[in-house]
Design brief:
By secondary structure, this protein is of the alpha/beta class. It has helices at 136-149, 166-171, 184-189, 191-200, 215-222, 276-279, 284-287, 306-311, 317-327; strands at 36-44, 47-52, 55-61, 75-80, 90-95, 101-104, 114-118, 122-128, 152-158, 179-181, 204-208, 249-252, 259-262. A six-stranded mixed β-sheet has the order 10-9-8-11-13-12. A five-stranded mixed beta barrel has the order 1-2-3-5-4. The chain has a two-stranded antiparallel sheet with strand order 6-7. Helix 4 packs across helix 5 (215-222).
Length: 336
């Protein structure tokens, strides 16, 4: 009976000391200087699909990485069989330093954070203007996660034929966030994809949104050569859609130089991992006013120096209100 597979290496062989002793295993790990560079496209039950030199290969994480996990968007070093042929398996030996991370927790009391996407430049927050109704608190939470993780946000508002976008856009006007408004007709005839694509070219963009807003349908239009399963219908009772994306997946942008990362539909977006003091970095016009703040100031308390600084005319009060609205979003549920 074979104990090991066809593609074993030195890390797969267990060495047990005998009665006479045996040479202990060295703690010096190989540097793998000849490892190929790759990008993680999707993760499924311990197997990672990666892109290496234009080839799609299957890989697994090396034991020396310990508990460190690779996620979609990670730049990795890979050794082993890189042919991409059927039944071959390579090995990820290193995860390169990340430039950005999109993280979330199950809820605001959950101490365990989950990295959803790595190295994305932009976070496209897809929200329907009706059917289902927009959830501003969920949008706020996504914005906080984007600012905290180093991603630039983009609002994509769908189903404008069912409701006007003005009220929702006014809510985020002081944040100067770029946005695209689309209708169902534009999504069907390709106009929506063309306008959204203009915001994605040359960038790695992660798409998030709760179920039923048309996120996966839009992604399908942006990457027609990599069709995902058709979107589910919105439940007439709950107003929620059926999940059509079960794992994050990176797809090359059609007709452009960029990547689209589709993620599963959201039910909640916990922010237990977010340090409120980092959110201020998304408001450079307010940052100078924090110099007089007490130590560990959350910028949402009575002794915050921003109140006097803004009252002196250094910045728009609406910007301070927007900052504090985002900071307080952890105190409310997403459905508020």
């Amino acid at each position: 009976m074979r104990r090991y597979g066809k593609h074993t290496d030195e890390d797969d062989i267990r060495t047990r000391p005998g009665r006479r002793g045996s040479r202990p295993r060295t703690s010096i790990r190989p540097k793998h200087e000849d490892a190929a560079e790759g990008m993680v496209l999707t993760v499924d039950r311990g197997r990672l699909t990666c892109l290496v030199d234009g080839r799609t290969i299957m890989a697994m994480k090396a034991r020396e990485l310990g508990r460190k996990a690779a996620v979609v968007g990670d730049r990795v070093a890979i050794v082993g069989d890189l042919s991409g042929e059927k039944d071959t398996l390579a090995r990820i030996v290193r995860i390169e330093e990340r430039t950005s991370v999109l993280r979330r927790t199950a809820d605001d009391d959950d101490p365990f954070e989950r990295v959803v996407v790595a190295n994305a430049d932009q976070l496209a927050i897809v929200t329907a203007l009706a059917d289902p109704e927009p959830r501003p608190r969920l949008i706020d939470r996504c914005l906080v996660a984007a600012f905290d993780g180093g991603l630039e946000p983009l609002l994509v508002l769908t189903k404008s034929d069912l409701a006007p976008p003005d009220e929702l856009l006014e809510l985020y006007g002081d944040l100067d966030i770029p946005y695209v408004v689309t209708s169902r007709e534009e999504l069907e005839n390709g106009e929506a994809a063309d306008r959204v694509r203009a915001e994605l070219d040359g960038r790695i963009t992660a798409f998030v949104g709760h179920s039923g807003v048309g996120k996966t349908t839009l992604v399908n239009a942006l990457v027609p050569h990599e069709r995902r399963r058709l979107t589910g219908h919105v439940n007439a009772v709950t107003g929620r859609g059926r999940h059509t994306t079960t794992s994050a997946l990176a797809l090359p942008l059609a007709g452009g130089d960029g990547w689209v990362i589709d993620t599963p539909g959201l039910r909640s977006f916990g922010l237990a991992h977010v340090d409120p003091s980092r959110v201020i970095h998304a408001f450079p016009d307010l940052a100078a006013g924090t110099e007089g703040c007490p130590r560990a100031c959350s910028h949402d308390e009575p002794d915050c120096a921003l109140d006097a600084w803004v009252a002196e005319g250094h910045s728009d009060p609406a910007r301070l209100y927007s900052l504090r609205r985002l900071l307080s979003t952890r105190e409310h549920t997403e459905g508020d």
